[in-house]
Structures are given as C-alpha cells and as structure tokens.
Design brief:
The chain has helices at residues 14-23, 28-36, 73-81, 87-108, 124-140, 169-174, 192-201, 264-274, 305-315, 362-372, 376-386; strands at residues 2-7, 43-52, 55-64, 144-147, 150-159, 162-166, 180-186, 204-205, 211-220, 230-238, 246-257, 279-286, 292-300, 322-330, 333-340, 343-352, 355-360. It folds into three domains: 2-244, no CATH class; 247-330, Alpha-Beta Plaits (2-Layer Sandwich); 333-386, no CATH class. The radius of gyration is 25 Å and the shape is globular. It contains eleven helices and 17 strands.
Length: 387
Amino acid sequence: MKTLYFDCVAGASGDMILGALLDAGLDERALRARLAGLRLPGFDLEVSRVQKMGIGATHVEVVVDDDAPERHLGDLVAVVEAADLPPAVIAQSVAILRRIGAAEAHIHAAPEVDHVHLHELGGLDTLVDVVGAVSGLDLLGIERVVCSPIPLGRGFTNSAHGRIPLPAPATIALLGGAPITSSQVEGETVTPTGAALLTSLSSAFGPIPAMTLRAIGYGAGRKEWAIPNVLRVLIGDAVGAEDELHAETLAVLETNIDDLNPETYEHVMAQLFAGGALDVTLTPVQMKKNRPATLITVLCQPAAAQALSEILFLETSTLGVRRHDVQRRCLPRESYTVDTPYGPIRLKVARWGDHAKAAPEYEDCRRAAEAHRVPLREVYAAALRVA
C-alpha cells in the first residue's frame, strides 16, 4: 500500500501541502492540467525553489486575480461539482469544503452553511488548495495518509472581524479529534485550510508508519521562524502487515483512588461508557503508606478526553487525572449475523493475510441462552460452528 506521511515540522497550509507534494515528485504539468478542469480564470500557480534555514524546499503561491471580496461556500461547491475532474476527486474536495464551511458557520452562528462567507479563507485560493491537494494525492497514487501531531503557534492575527487569537477559531474547530502540540512559535503555523486538509485526508495520526521510503518532499511556508518553516512528506510502500492494520491515536486517562465506596465503581463505569469511553478498567494497586487503592484507566478518542475527565472529577473523589496518548493498531473487522439453532447471533470477524478469527456478540449469546435455557457456552459454540 502506497503510504504518505505528513511530518508537520512547523505546521501546514494549503500552499505548503501543494509544495511538499510537488517536491516529492508530483508532476507540475499534471497538477496544472487537473486545476484547469475547474474552468476558472483568475488564478495561477507560482512555483519556485527556496531555502528554509538551509533546507531546500518548494514554495507554491496561488496568485488570484479575483474582484470578489468574499464568496459563499455554495458558490465554491458548485464550481467543483461542475468541474472536469475524476468523480472521487470532486466528492472528496466538496466534503473538505463543506467541513470548512461548517466550522465557519458554527463560529459565526450562521444559519445556513452554503451561505457562509469565506472571506477569511480567501475563496478562490482555498478552492485551488483543496482541489490541488486532493488531485495531487490521486495523481501520486497514494492509498493511505498518516499525519504527525500538529504543532500550533500562539499570538494574534488580523481578520475581517478584527484581531483574533491564534490558533484561529476555524483552525481549532477543524482539528477536533487530532493530536495537537505547542510549536513554541509566535505566529500562525496552521491555517484553517491546512487543518481541514490534514484532518480530512489522514486516516491516522501518530509516528512514522513502517514503510520502505521512496520519496521525500519539503513544502515551504511564507514566513521565517526560529525553526525551518517547512512541511515534510514521506512517501513509501507499507512494510509487512502495516497496510492491513488500522492505526489511530487514542487517549488514556488514569487516576488512583483509595477512599471511594466500592459500590460506586459500577455507576462510574456506566457513566464513562455513556460518555464515549472505549474501555474502562479497574486495577487494584498499593499506594503510599501501603494503602490499598484502585487504579481507574479509561481509553478513549482524544476528542472525548475532556468530557470523560469531567466525569471522573464529578463522580469520584479524585483530585487529579493523568492523561497520555497511545498508538493503537487494529485488525480490520466486519460484522455478520449468522443463524443458529438458538436464533440469529451477531459475529465480529477480523481478517489479516491468510488468517481470520470470529467473536460472537456476548449480549446476543446471553439473551439466546436465557430464552432457550441452555448454557451460554453452547450458544457460543453454535455461533462459531456456523462462522
């Protein structure tokens, strides 16, 4: 599986993504031909080679000759839907544009997403960045995209509404669920368009995946930082079973408790699962002064970590919750329903390479065992025999 890794050295923007793809081997003429399919006069690409603190990189600037001070999201979507582009490129580009529009609509409390003004994001240049990035991945034959944690700068920037804090509200809204970190840079390291592209195109976030490296590219940002202002992409072929596994970044919350009524833990677990926890475990531990205690561990999506921490503070006696991120690799799985002598039973089936394994759904098996007054293990065995 041909894999691309976005290494966000100093952040990302639409221009930096285009530059990195061109630097990694994307044919410029092929990209220009794709963008010509938009049938839009009034823009051009200026591509040049630059150096960022000694690192050679490709700089792309979308030059727009457009008199419109602002454009509605619906206008841009209509252009893409009418473009002479592959259907998959049109569908993905429209989905990304709608994500940007939804973020802007939420921030500005706009009643209709299609009528959101994209004056903050530049209208035509946003359109070119999005369609160009999606087309670039398609032309390069990329099958999987992974992204590093995304570094964010601080400070303020000017907008149509006045001075706004960095990261920009639209950027933060579009990064929900993605791992973020501080870049220690005073300035805008990630633009809303860059955030939308990284989070829409990437199927996973985390460290560099195992792959045989085939190409490297550097896309240059416009500003000069105390670090090289570049976005790096690594392109290669997945090694071993990497292309069969789903990789994702999850958050782990932990707290030690030594003064809670044991009857409370069942309620706490139920609240955590209802709040979006993927798993909750209780582990007996010994604390200082040899006091017996319970370690509560919660596994969740990063976007749910804050809400689940609140549940731990509200429902337990803890005064502090630890958090760290972990990488999880999962086998691809499918769900089936099989007919057994005890009725229909759902199965989870995972396959990798020449291997496969199935697991009957516990609740289905429990209900069938109670209804037919047979041991639970017999229902399990019947479901596995059919599988």
